[in-house]
Amino acid sequence: MHNGRYFLSFSGKITFRFALDGAPVKIPFTVRIPSWAVNAKLTVNAEQPKEYHAGGFSTIERRFKDGDVVELDIDMKPRTEKRADTGMNVYMGPLLYSVNIDENVEIIKDQFKTSAAFPAYNVTPASKWNFGLPENPEITVVSTGKNGFPWTPDSTPVKLKVTAFEIPEWRLLGDTTPGLPGEKIQVSSKCEEIEMVPSGCTRIRMTTLPIVESCK
């Protein structure tokens, strides 16, 4: 599960099956449930969910027999989380998502500590980045079917399509990203669908987006 490719394509259900040669055995069975998995369900043989604690370890103590099944079903639906600075983040599972921004890449090889063999790179946006999200954006999960190294926008197994609004007046300050433009700013642009990828896939990142209200 630590491999990025497998976690990105993780369906949300983990199944443990007991295979015992002899008589039932009473043992404690402990499962760690992530803090973000607040809607997880922990069941034994498909019975009613057992009590659990998100962000900690949950232990089932019983006499297990051959064929018993313990299932941990984790809600992997995308979700948004508001921030205190009037912004909003988009998550799926433990992964934070960023706007997929095209890049202009400038190779720098004539400055201090750079050379043709070990250049530096100046990466700037080549596509729109200045988006805001409505209070309840529509989010669609897209499985790309990609395998192998998962940590580039083109190779990630999972992307998100998210409804958003461009904020034309929110612009770069020179080569620097400005702060968030305000709380629930009004926009007149048309709603569009943007692509978001895991933040770890990106080199330039627009991750916390302002919350906007359409004035149309």
Commentary on this structure:
There is one protein chain. This protein is mainly β and 216 residues long. It contains one helix and 17 strands. It has one helix at residues 4-8, and strands at residues 13-17, 25-33, 41-44, 56-64, 69-73, 79-82, 87-92, 95-99, 103-108, 120-125, 131-132, 139-143, 158-166, 185-187, 191-198, 209-210, 212-214. Strands 6, 7, 8, 11, 12, 13, 15 and 16 form an eight-stranded antiparallel β-sheet that branches. Strands 1-5-3 form a three-stranded antiparallel β-sheet, with no helix packed on it. Strands 2-4 form a two-stranded antiparallel sheet. The protein is elongated, with a radius of gyration of 23 Å.
How do the strands and helices of this protein lay out in sequence?
Layout: H1 4-8, E1 13-17, E2 25-33, E3 41-44, E4 56-64, E5 69-73, E6 79-82, E7 87-92, E8 95-99, E9 103-108, E10 120-125, E11 131-132, E12 139-143, E13 158-166, E14 185-187, E15 191-198, E16 209-210, E17 212-214
Parallel strand pairs: 14-17
Antiparallel strand pairs: 1-5, 2-4, 3-5, 6-7, 7-8, 7-16, 8-15, 9-10, 11-13, 12-13, 13-15
